[in-house]
Each structure stands twice: as structure tokens, then as C-alpha cells.
Write a structure and sequence with these properties.
This protein is of the alpha/beta class and 216 residues long. The protein contains 7 helices and 6 strands, in the order αααβαβαβαβββα. It has one domain: Vaccinia Virus protein VP39 (Rossmann fold), CATH 3.40.50. The protein has a 6-stranded mixed beta sheet with strand order 2-1-3-4-6-5, sandwiched between helices. Helix 4 links the parallel strand 1 and strand 2. The longest helix is centred in the first third of the chain and has 21 residues. It is globular. The termini are far apart.
């Protein structure tokens, strides 16, 4: 893998990786390309684009994730994005990739063992079938609108948790004003090493107003 591209991108994000983390990304890239020849896990098939458009794009989510220890559910994780890169860089986060495809889940199980990621817990089912669990952070790179993501996952979100999804430069803020009891913040940024714009949408429950609050 072209490590210098990854290191430069991580530096841009304020991340100073340890050698075991860089080695984990080496293996991740190698295994993704190897499995992809049989299972078609990604349309991106060169190292530079894997680094930029998968690894670094995934790590943009850290701009919106709490710096404290937390639990994270990655909805529709596919080949592990953004969950696995986050798990590599933030071992303090318990990451749960949820993936309904058996072949993609098989890759994630293999990757967990290969990279010895003890903070990774793979769930091979649809997000609609998950019950009796809550998470501090819920992420997705799937093509959900904010309203769809709220509808599918709000029951899994802890009271002070956040939903984070990423959109491209074509995102129009006014299209998702119907968020009900949820509020929205936005972070505009770019994937390091590229001119590709990303808009991180951060959604959380609005504080419940009490009668005393209303009087003031």
C-alpha cells in the first residue's frame, strides 16, 4: 500500500498513527483487493483511491464523533466503511458494523480476526431486525436521507447519542427539514489529498422543554 498517501492524509486530520495502525491499513487494503477479485466488495480497485475514498473518507467521521470512550453502530457497513477504519484509529470505541450481506459480513469477520480488532463486533442482519441495544453514535455511508436514518435507527440511539451521515457536494440542506424531535448540525470538509467535498450531517435529539423552561 502507498503508505505516504495515507500518512499525509492522516496528518491533515490531526492523526499521528502508530506503526501497528499503519500495518493494519496495509493488511486491510491487501485483503480488500484480494477478496474483491472473488466477491466484488467495492468498485474501487486501486490503492490510491482505496486510501483516499475509503480509509480517509471514513475517518472524516471522527470530526463529529465524541473524543471520549463510546459505542458506535455502523449501518450498512459493506466492506467496513466507515466502521473499521474508525476502529483501527480509535481502539477506545466499540464499533458494531451491521451488514445484511453474508459475503460482506464474512469479509468483516475475517478482517476482525486478521487485524486482531477486539473492539469490533460484527452483526450479520438488517438494521430493522436489531433489538434491545443502544449506541452513543450511529454512522452510515449508505444512501439514506436523514429522515430515513432516523426512522430506521432512532430506537437504537442512546438519549444523548448522535447520528452521523455523509453527503456529497450536491446535498441541499432544505431537503430534510422534517426531522421532528431531532436537530441537525453540519460540518463541511474535504477528503484529504483530494478536492472531493463532504458534508457531515450530525443529528441528535432536541432537549425536552419542561414547563419551567417555557416560563423562562
Amino acid at each position: 500500500m502507498q503508505r505516504e498517501i495515507l500518512i499525509e492524509g492522516l496528518k491533515h486530520l490531526g492523526i499521528s498513527p502508530a506503526e501497528p495502525q499503519l500495518k493494519a491499513f496495509d493488511i486491510y487494503c491487501e485483503e480488500l483487493l484480494r477478496w474483491n477479485r472473488t466477491y466484488n466488495l467495492t468498485a474501487i480497485t486501486n490503492e490510491r483511491d482505496i486510501i483516499n475514498k475509503h480509509f480517509l473518507d471514513s475517518l472524516l467521521y471522527l470530526l463529529a464523533i465524541p473524543r471520549t470512550r463510546c459505542s458506535l453502530c455502523d449501518v450498512g457497513s459493506g466492506a467496513g466503511f466507515p466502521g473499521v477504519p474508525i476502529a483501527i484509529i480509535r481502539p477506545d470505541i466499540l464499533v458494531t458494523p451491521v451488514e445484511s450481506s453474508r459475503k460482506r459480513a464474512a469479509f468483516l469477520y475475517y478482517l476482525r480476526q486478521k487485524l486482531a480488532l477486539n473492539n469490533l463486533e460484527i452483526v450479520n442482519k438488517r438494521i430493522e431486525d436489531m433489538q434491545d441495544r443502544t449506541f452513543d453514535v450511529i454512522t452510515t455511508r449508505a444512501l439514506f436521507s436523514p429522515e430515513e436514518l432516523i426512522r430506521k435507527t432512532c430506537r437504537l440511539l442512546s438519549p444523548k447519542g448522535v447520528l452521523i451521515l455523509s453527503q456529497g457536494q450536491g446535498y441541499k440542506e432544505g431537503r430534510d427539514n422534517n426531522l421532528g424531535q431531532f436537530s441537525r448540525d453540519i460540518i463541511e470538509t474535504y477528503i484529504p489529498n483530494t478536492n472531493i467535498k463532504r458534508i457531515l450531517i450530525i443529528i441528535q435529539r432536541q432537549p425536552v422543554q419542561t414547563v419551567t423552561d417555557q416560563l423562562h
